[in-house]
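Hey, weird one. I pasted the Formate C-acetyltransferase sequence into the form twice and got a warning about non-standard characters only the second time. First submission, copied straight from the form history:
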Amino acid sequence: MSTPRIERLKTALFAAQREISLERALLYTESHKQTEGESTLIRRAKATAYVLDNVAISIREDELIAGNRTIEPRAGIASPEMDPYWIDKELDIFESRPQDKFFISEQDKAIYREQLLPYWSERSMKDFINAQIPSDVKAAVGQKIFSVNQTDKGQGHIIIDFDRLLGKGLGALVDELNGLSLGQPDNDFFKSVVILLEASIRHIHRYADLAEQMAEGSVDAARQAELRAIARISRKVATEKPAGFYEACQLFWYMNIILQYESNASSLSLGRFDQYMLPFYQQSIAQGESPAFLRELLESLWIKTNDIVLLRSSSSAKFFAGFPTGYTILLGGLNEVGRSAVNVLSTLCLDAYQSVQLPQPNLGVRVNEFMDRGFLMKTAETIRLGTGIPQIFNDEVVVPAFLNRGVSLEDARDYSVVGCVELSIPGKTYGLHDIAMFNLLKVMELAMQRNADNPDVSFDTLLQEIRSDIRHYVKLMVEGSNICDVGHRDWAPVPLLSSFISDCIENGKDITYGGGRYNFSGVQGIGIANLSDSLHALKRYVFEEQRCTFKEFITTLDSNFAVPGGEKVRARLMNKYEKYGNDIDEVDSLGADLLRLFCKEVEQYQNPRGGQFTPGSYTVSAHVPLGAVVGATADGRLSGEQLADGGLSPMLGKDQLGPTAVLKSVSKLDNYLLSNGSLLNVKFTPATLEGQQGLSKLSDFIRAFMKLKLQHIQFNVLNADTLKKAQEKPEDYSGLVVRVAGYSAFFVELSKEIQDDIIRRTAHEL
């Protein structure tokens, strides 16, 4: 059970409507105007330092851990230096758009249009990227074959070296970087890191001052003592390394807020929290601190992660609906010598989440052959709550996948996740995850249309064209992604964050310049389930059974099955031919072969940082907008209808032989190649997981998932009737959390399209 404080903090966080704050944008711009002629690194550092020195700060009622990005909870902040144009276009629709709504005052609208937009027009990263993209890449993007992402905001999708932060402290890091800067006075990276570390110290001191002022003005003796503790701890961790769990959590959260000011990026993720925080927790226990108080601290921290929401464009919000901030944590897993890393804090993290039950942090659990039954049952117990948290990752697949990419064994065993399901090595990887999404089903559609009048078309020749097109468009996707990569380097380096990534200090380079140890570019292949189903149905209906000519079939699809007899054709396509997700080799192998081709093509290419492109297969919530740009398909799917959710999940309602058959279908994919991450959604009815027997069945199912060598799985445990009631009376279900894709969100904050998708997913029983 939560304490009264935790319940009050939760209530306060969601009491007011979401607003847009222009404060960071205005401060950043003010500094930027004063640094004309200086290098980008120095300008970025000075602008962020200026924000840290001048942004309004607050310590809210009941808070034990200080640090807020904005005065108002859950406010979105704008980054016009990245892309000023989309904000201008949406100023008048933020409150009414279908997804991720925000309030912005008329006064702030005027400020944006009169001050920020004129300055950043033709000065932004977006301007550079748009000017560099060649016509053939633009044409492919326009055809919706692939998208190039991260062109309008900070990249993020990274985990800093929290051991470096917590083990050294900011004062020692300033001394280290000052020495390096003096030794290499021409190195702007070192200079910029010093500027930002010193600004971070000043920023934390501002909170210490505020806490002292608030304590002096407080008439509540208990609150006064809490504020003095915040002041004392803040004063210490501003320069010294923390001692104990409270101090470690406070410095940890301050740095998370500061890094948000630097880049305003999604998925500055939290890594293996139970590993790097364990010594501090043990120290507090050894010193006799109350376990109940330490748990309340942890629950307070979990609530803080829900305070950060991202301001996205309407288009981006369709792909990342429901504010997936990406405060992702993986628990358990392996240690550096390959044994189980589960510890007391692993369990406490799940216990704290069971009390809080909010979308963030996006907890996951790493499973392996050494995982003990007790922690697996605790994991199943948490999943049964129905929030979609934790998700599950398989060490038996992910570790070899990283070894295949040249990662050392010890580093591979230390993997975690950024964002939703993107695989990364904490403190060592700049993966440029989510840089592009590739719509495999769209490639099939275009190949079919191109052959509509070809009398000699056959299934084999069509399949060869699809394979050739995948190769062609992967090359164009890489070209566009690399231009975006250079855009982040030249317009938006992140020196403070880089100083917490291995080898950047040794190399004297920002991560965007290739300073990190591992430099990947992550892209996603989308639509594998629909592709498998469509190819199989096309092969059977047209080429084997010869129920119509290929041209007649194309006419039927182009009409969205509106030709005479079209509904009968659609019914046959949907119901008479086997579908992916039912352990049918003939169907599953079609998608497996093409996904493997996509992966092998992607991994051939390098990025400007000297790293390798790495493939994945997950959709976030993009299966809805990606489906909207594909016409009717041979699996019976209507024009504009969503694609299969998740990435590797079967199409809605097509997995009819139970959840184990789904696992077997997905196991036929070459999961070791999907080193950027993959996603499988499974939905269970609550009744099937009731009691101790239900938990045992779920635990056994997770073990089966592990042994079948799948990479990822996550669960929704909800009745469709409950979700339908939440649609009808959202005010009665404001706290209902569901799994969307690689993240959870409040159901009532999702668009109706995505709500309907979640309702329609097959609910299995064990």
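That's the output from the first submission. The warning seems to come from a hidden character in my clipboard, not from the data itself. The chain has a mean pLDDT of 95.
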